Amino acid sequence: MNSIIEFFRSTVKEMKLVSWPSKPEVWGSTKVVIGITILLVLFIFGSDQLLNWLIGIFIN
């Protein structure tokens, strides 16, 4: 039981040493992730539509 308590104490101690990002940094990173995700979705969708169109031309 003492080892479990010591584990949680050391965990709390280590968490206090972590350099947490500020709210503006988190929002900035979130915007970048959402933007890249949207661009990737559009690219994959466009590629899929183009390949479907090309396959349709060569099959018919």
Q: Strands, helices and their partners?
A:
Layout lengths: L1 H16 L5 H37 L1
Question: What is this entry, summarized?
Answer:
With 60 residues, the chain is an all-alpha fold. It is built from 2 helices and no strands.
Unreliable stretches, pLDDT < 50, 5 or more residues?
Answer: none
Report mean pLDDT, rounded to a whole number.
Answer: 95
H/E series: HH
Overall 3D geometry?
elongated
Rg from Cα: 24 Å
Give the distance, in angstroms, between the N- and C-terminal Cα atoms.
73 Å
Please give the largest β-sheet: none
Briefly note the structural class of the backbone. mainly alpha
Strand proportion, as a percent range, falls in under 5%
Report the total helices: 2
Overall strand count: 0
Helix content: over 70%
